[in-house]
């Protein structure tokens, strides 16, 4: 058990309920605990693995996803979950986000989306709303906020959901489904940051979130649903494509190449390609 | 006895195929040869040329002597290279090639047959008996096309112009990248991630070809940042892992390298150098990234850098690097260049038959990834193998892999990581010396220059000054023990490098206090030739 | 004038007609020639600026866009066009692609999309179709192809078009409109690579492309339109939002900060943020 | 006379505000002081402490002597720091702070008033007359809160405990990042792009604040790769441009650095070091990235690295760097660290009033960006200014900026780029020597250690061995001319560095052949204190 005071988050941080949810999801997963690996980047959210009893690779800012891809490719037998913040997964790691989805691997991407760079003290993240000001942007955010859910759907993710740290039971079922889904799954989790985000607070979200009963009919409907933000924010599984097949992977670990492979190599022709 | 041929033309005209097919056949026929190329960063057009040196003794460099034969597929080749023909040399003009193309079209229904015909013509010139082919299994070339080439050789009086005996004891030929890929597989490599970049791409090709039906995986990443992080993920998960790239791609891997250092995750990084800065000359050669690799990644952690000087060293060191990376739990680098990557040579040395593998102990739940030990090394485990949880962290961490800000623990962790370099000392790859054992002058070199320097030193032997060559295939760490046997004190030291600033000479100074008396540097994107180098050396020696 | 033989592309390459189009668009632009800047990355397409009479910054593989952003921010008076290949703009440079669009700048992004890494000899690019084989992927492409048009629309680009190298007049009008549009504009140009792409040839495209008369009604319709690929491929302006406003920029070049600015600095309080 | 205070507690308890407000007032009141902090990489909780040394003479380091006052906002502070209190020191317990909070709540309606009250209490302790505040314009602190602090000081018998005279001739105070930002603006910087990273982020803050209403722009990039490329774009387009980051972010800029080198685009890169590798200790200090910066970017091109040792040097060198970058058309680096970034100090030196600007010539259409000249420097133009087309290229290029594969031109272009380092020689920043002019021992140091070393050397003066300190604020290039005036031959040389491998000592060896006799290294994430360093030095000297 991790003592609450060992946790480096601010009191009241939205990451606490998410951690609780994750702890109980992992405990109840039909997978032995030692077969689950979390990867994470750097940020407040990315500290998550330290506060769970789990294998983890806490890597670099923005790089939770390629680590997860490498682990999954190497070890299809492991349940692989990438955990990070919005800055990490969509900002610094944006290229990995779009291309990891394209790889059709059975991994789960979870984001604590607090619409801010928490650990570095409150700068705009890719999901920060328009006109929000902070110490690096005294004029107010000029950029179009990135919608992670729409982006994931557009890139072809077969399971795309939104959760809210203030709805623990709901979040738990969404995360559980995401992990059990056979294919790339995203859960973007609305996570109030009590220290730096004075706009998108628990109250702000509570007034807006509502649960969708079932995923949208098709991608275009899902995109419409995903776009809703200012007054009503749908949470739940917004898109799910059960017909999508994830990539077949072979077992590598514990195997070894044979002499034939080496001989094949010796006979391989040189190629006209560097 | 030797015969050097240059085949030149526009990219896409087929010279590349001629070189490939010729080297394929030469090796099958047990000829000693050395082949390399000079090509532009474009797919069609421009001016490329391919050089093949065929000999009765092993050859591993461009001689730099006038060509015995120049085959000009276009007028530019005639213009640039005809003047470099030896007095008795054979020139095949674009007109003659056209003639052959004409026959190819008529007889074989297409101009591409010309490539094989040219191969036949060259083989005829070195006196290869035409009936030899029937006896060799798996010769892919079309025998009719080859015969047509022999015919032309006879018609133009070239057949048997310079008879060369096939004296190679083996039929093994590789290019540098292939030797590296083979070495990696022998080292137990099962995972590679990469993003195409000249001159490293074919390493990925060789691995992905093997991956088709063996327990090996190659993943093409969206960028080099992803590639290095994927490889670290795979290494953490249990597989010996590899990335390969060139300077610009390696620039993007820097943070990942530092991550490997901090998390103590074994990783092999091949950097195939090309001339920089930035995009530079993508298809040419240089040794300009030694310092860049030596200091890659922020912060401090141990590393080793190998710079193979031959195909055999490439294979052996690639294999060994996996052992060392696992043993030292740190990133290990292999520094090559376009010249080595793109040169095809016979390899007479034996290929190790044993594949070395990573071994894991078995651990219970008390396992700590970063246990403090006297050697600095903590036992490596992989997730899911036992009750052990494997926790690795890019922040400073405690023994369990949990983030820490305990500053005295920080000090111990820094010392733990640095202590691991003791392991590297045990694994030192000694430099190799050739030439006069009681030399007055020592020509120091590293990486792909080895066999060029050795031949140049052989060539100037007996010229009055006793000269030896000392080649470093481990360029870092450098220790006094590595140079002690060669007794450099009081000798004149000349260094040879393919860069503009003498990076290795600087490193020798910093690490071993050795001062170089003269530096021979070349940085136009081409390798040294034996002739060029021996001439410069002679100047310094007289 | 650039001599044809100076150009390092293969005979028959789809980049030649694009170059011709671009040359005439630039000539006819209501902007002085010295006020146009092209940025590019590395690849066959990225050599484009060398073959035009124009200011250029031919930078690194994947980095045409941040160069363009820097230039535009520094010099709002310049017409800024980023030119590169599919690998450059959507692969190595994918993160810049999604975030550059978010910045709402008046720049034009042009891509020679040949669905292959041309310069490095034929590997899969992000837009390569499923199951295509090559020397690095002997098993065939497993990834979901990236649709640049959908991605740009999802990220909020106000002008998104597709062109075809085989339809020069049409391409010319699309590129011209894109450059003149006040806001971030993408033209993804279908460009046959005669050396490495044996599938998506001139003929293949010719059988499929058709011109749309006008942009789709809204984003969702545009996304539907953009998705069409295997049998019918719409070219033209697929999405256009004339109500979108691009960011206001101030003049910097030739100006200088004043002593007051320095004094302001001297009096600025230290902050609780590193 | 001096008075050192430590205020400790959990992140978020207000110690940061106490330090900020105290330093704000101290400077307005013309006190000499030095303030720095020791904080964790978290927003709330943990254990942070802030240290302020107030004195009658200029102070620019932590003395390391027992504290005169410890203010414990929590029990951890009591536990860790009470033992370090001087015999006559004042300890303010968490209970006492609670009492103050009680009053704050009652009288001012909230506990945050406690911060200002603590500031008042400290000012009272150093004998600051309470009526002084009314006279000072723009004192932001609430006078009632301050008065309440004075009251507590009187109640607890602390008022005037250690009277210190305000003797500073100015009221200018900066932290290190602010001095750099100011210097950059004075150097004509008009563009900065960046991605937040401790300890560099506040440089972006200072620039973006000025950008609000001056012709300067700050753009927050999506990642560091984008930041460096944006800055290169802006520089090309005509603006002096800046990026700032720390090791991990700098790792991502490597390819862009190489691009600056190849395209000869002026660029300033500030690297604010923190302990690595990888994420390391994000809020602590180290000098572990010298080699990394020195060899950043693949390929070879000239560069200079400044490592300021004081606020004034930070400002002056940041300003100068823009002149040098433009003059040499190459990237110039400023290497600082968390210690310098986070230390707030009085700056008594004058601030240059002239803003230096980039000047462009005017060119016609015959302009060539890379014209070959004797100096290696080609005239710089910006697009759209005249008929000149400005063409820059990351490939090897000809004079016009067109891609080339002409290998003899390659050689000339390499030499052109390297030749530009002559310009750097003209601009050399000499090292500074302090201490005994006829020293037997020289303590060599660089970057932020300067004023710590100087005070330590002063402290051991007269101890028998004549000792001097030699500080390098230009750490590269290093030339013999830089050390000649200090006549190092035959002297004992001790180096002081905040890293584990003695990177600068290695560089001295490589570049100047200087061997260091002893290395004093610290790598736990903290700076040296004067006491600690002077004790170690004494050991070596006895
Ligand atoms: C390469 C790199 N750039 C910048 C940083 C600094 N950094 C650490 S966390 C962070 C932002 C975190 O934001 P987010 O991912 O949203 O996580 P949060 O703290 O909000 O949970 C940044 C910019 C870094 N560690 N590495
Ligand atoms: C950082 C980096 N990685 C890899 C390369 C090698 N490289 C050059 S061009 C290219 C791909 C080009 O593909 P694309 O952008 O589609 O352009 P095309 O040649 O197809 O027009 C690659 C991988 C490079 N120059 N830099
Ligand atoms: S700063 Fe925000 S996100 Fe970070 S721990 Fe505090 S409340 Fe949570
Ligand atoms: S390889 Fe393809 S894209 Fe490149 S020039 Fe040739 S045809 Fe054009
Ligand atoms: Mg966040
Ligand atoms: Mg392409």
List keywords for this structure.
heterotetramer, A: 274 residues, alpha/beta, eight-stranded mixed β-sheet, 9 helices, globular, B: 542 residues, Pyruvate-ferredoxin Oxidoreductase, domain 3, Rossmann fold, 3 domains, seven-stranded mixed β-sheet, binds thiamine diphosphate, binds iron/sulfur cluster, binds magnesium ion
What's the quick description here?
The complex is a heterotetramer, with two copies of chain A (274 residues) and two copies of chain B (542 residues). Chain A is α/β, with parallel strands linked by helices.
Structure characterization notes:
Chain A is globular, with a radius of gyration of 20 Å. In chain A, helix 3 (86-92) crosses helix 4 (94-102) and helix 5 (148-155) runs antiparallel to helix 8 (219-227). Chain A contains nine helices and eight strands. Chain A has helices at residues 15-28, 64-74, 86-92, 94-102, 148-155, 168-180, 202-208, 219-227, 259-267, and strands spanning 36-40, 55-58, 79-85, 107-113, 159-164, 185-190, 209-211, 233-240. Chain A has one domain: 3-Layer(aba) Sandwich (Rossmann fold), CATH 3.40.50.970. Chain A is 32% helix and 17% strand. In chain A, helix 8 links the parallel strand 7 (209-211) and strand 8 (233-240). In chain A, strands 2-1-3-4-6-5-8-7 form an eight-stranded mixed β-sheet, with helices on both faces. The mean pLDDT of chain A is 95. Chain B has 542 residues and is an alpha/beta fold. Chain B has three domains: 2-155, 3-Layer(aba) Sandwich (Pyruvate-ferredoxin Oxidoreductase, domain 3), CATH 3.40.920; 173-347, Thiamin diphosphate (ThDP)-binding fold, Pyr/PP domains (Rossmann fold, 3-Layer(aba) Sandwich), CATH 3.40.50.970; 432-541, Rossmann fold (3-Layer(aba) Sandwich). Chain B contains 18 helices and 20 strands. Chain B has helices at residues 15-28, 75-81, 94-108, 113-125, 143-155, 176-186, 201-211, 224-237, 247-263, 290-294, 311-328, 338-342, 407-419, 421-426, 450-460, 480-483, 503-512, 530-541; strands spanning 2-11, 32-38, 45-55, 67-72, 85-92, 173-175, 189-194, 217-220, 240-245, 267-273, 304-306, 331-337, 344-346, 391-393, 432-435, 441-446, 467-472, 474-476, 492-497, 518-521. A seven-stranded mixed β-sheet of chain B has the order 5-4-1-3-2-13-6, with helices on both faces. In chain B, strands 8-7-9-10-12-11-18 form a seven-stranded mixed β-sheet, with helices on both faces. In chain B, helix 6 packs across helix 7 (201-211), helix 6 runs parallel beside helix 11 and helix 15 crosses helix 18. Bound molecules: thiamine diphosphate (2 copies), iron/sulfur cluster (SF4) (2 copies) and magnesium ion (2 copies).
């Amino acid at each position: 058990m991790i003592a609450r005071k060992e946790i480096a988050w601010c009191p009241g941080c939205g990451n606490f309920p998410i951690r609780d949810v994750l702890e109980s999801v992992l405990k109840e997963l039909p997978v032995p605990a030692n077969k689950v690996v979390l990867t994470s980047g750097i940020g407040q959210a990315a500290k998550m693995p330290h506060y769970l009893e789990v294998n983890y690779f806490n890597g670099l800012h923005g790089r939770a996803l390629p680590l997860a891809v490498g682990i999954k490719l190497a070890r299809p037998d492991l349940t692989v979950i990438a955990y990070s913040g919005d800055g990490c997964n969509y900002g610094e790691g944006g290229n990995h986000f779009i291309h990891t989805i394209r790889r059709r691997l059975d991994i789960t991407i979870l984001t604590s989306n607090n619409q801010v760079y928490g650990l570095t003290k409150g700068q705009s993240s890719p999901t920060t709303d328009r006109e929000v000001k902070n110490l690096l942007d005294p004029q107010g955010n000029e950029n179009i906020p990135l919608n992670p859910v729409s982006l994931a759907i557009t890139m072809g993710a077969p399971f795309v959901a939104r959760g809210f740290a203030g709805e623990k039971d709901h979040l738990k079922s969404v995360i559980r489904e995401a992990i059990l889904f056979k294919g790339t799954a995203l859960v973007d989790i609305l996570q109030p940051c009590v220290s730096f985000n004075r706009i998108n607070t628990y109250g702000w979200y509570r007034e807006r979130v509502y649960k969708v009963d079932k995923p949208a009919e098709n991608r275009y409907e899902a995109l419409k649903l995903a776009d809703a933000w200012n007054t009503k924010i749908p949470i739940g599984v917004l898109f799910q494509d059960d017909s999508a097949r994830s990539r077949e992977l072979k077992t590598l670990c514990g195997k070894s190449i044979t002499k034939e492979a080496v001989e094949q190599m010796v006979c391989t022709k040189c190629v006209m390609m560097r | 006895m030797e015969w050097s041929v240059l085949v030149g033309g526009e990219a896409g005209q087929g010279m590349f195929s001629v070189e490939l097919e010729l080297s394929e056949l030469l090796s099958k026929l047990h000829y000693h040869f050395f082949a390399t190329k000079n090509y532009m960063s474009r797919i069609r057009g421009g001016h490329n040329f391919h050089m093949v040196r065929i000999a009765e003794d092993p050859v591993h460099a461009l001689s730099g002597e006038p060509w015995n034969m120049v085959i000009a597929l276009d007028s530019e080749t005639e213009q640039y290279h005809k003047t470099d023909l030896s007095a008795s040399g054979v020139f095949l003009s674009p007109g003659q090639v056209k003639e052959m193309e004409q026959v190819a079209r008529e007889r074989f229904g297409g101009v591409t047959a010309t490539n094989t015909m040219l191969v036949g013509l060259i083989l005829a010139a070195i006196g290869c008996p035409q009936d030899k082919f029937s006896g060799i299994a798996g010769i892919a070339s079309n025998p009719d096309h080859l015969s047509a080439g022999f015919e032309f050789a006879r018609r133009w009086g070239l057949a048997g112009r310079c008879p060369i005996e096939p004296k190679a004891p083996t039929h093994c030929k590789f290019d540098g990248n292939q030797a590296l890929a083979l070495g990696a597989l022998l080292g137990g490599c099962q995972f590679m991630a990469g993003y195409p970049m000249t001159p490293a791409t074919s390493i990925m090709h060789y691995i992905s070809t093997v991956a088709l039906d063996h327990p090996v995986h190659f993943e093409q990443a969206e960028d080099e940042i992803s590639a290095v992080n994927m490889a670290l993920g795979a290494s953490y998960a249990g597989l010996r892992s590899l990335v390969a790239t060139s300077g610009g791609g390696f620039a993007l891997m820097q943070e990942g390298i530092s991550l490997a250092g901090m998390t103590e995750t074994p990783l092999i990084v091949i950097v195939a150098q090309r001339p920089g800065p930035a995009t530079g000359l993508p298809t040419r050669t240089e040794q300009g990234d030694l310092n860049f690799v030596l200091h890659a990644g922020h912060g401090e952690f141990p590393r080793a850098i190998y710079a193979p000087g031959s195909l055999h060293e490439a294979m052996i060191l690639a294999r060994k690097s996996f052992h060392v990376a696992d043993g030292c739990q740190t990133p290990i680098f292999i520094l090559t260049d376009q010249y080595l990557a793109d040169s095809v040579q016979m390899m007479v040395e034996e290929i190790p038959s044993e594949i070395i593998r990573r071994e894991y102990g078995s651990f219970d739940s008390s396992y700590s990834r970063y246990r403090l030990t006297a050697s600095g090394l903590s036992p490596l485990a992989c997730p899911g193998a036992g009750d052990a949880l494997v926790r690795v962290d890019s922040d400073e961490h405690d023994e369990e892999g949990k983030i820490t800000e305990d500053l005295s623990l920080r000090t111990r962790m820094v010392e733990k990581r640095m202590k691991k370099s003791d392991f590297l000392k045990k694994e030192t790859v000694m430099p190799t010396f050739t030439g006069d054992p009681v030399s007055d002058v020592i020509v120091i070199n590293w990486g792909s220059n080895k066999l060029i320097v050795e031949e140049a030193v052989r060539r100037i032997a007996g010229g009055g000054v006793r000269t030896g060559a000392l080649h470093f295939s481990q360029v870092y760490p450098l220790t006094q023990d590595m140079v002690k046997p060669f007794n450099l004190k009081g000798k004149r030291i000349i260094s040879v490098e393919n860069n503009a600033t003498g990076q290795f000479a600087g490193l020798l100074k910093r690490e071993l206090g050795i001062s170089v008396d003269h530096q021979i540097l070349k940085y136009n994107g081409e390798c040294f030739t034996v002739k060029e180098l021996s001439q410069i050396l002679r100047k310094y020696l007289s």
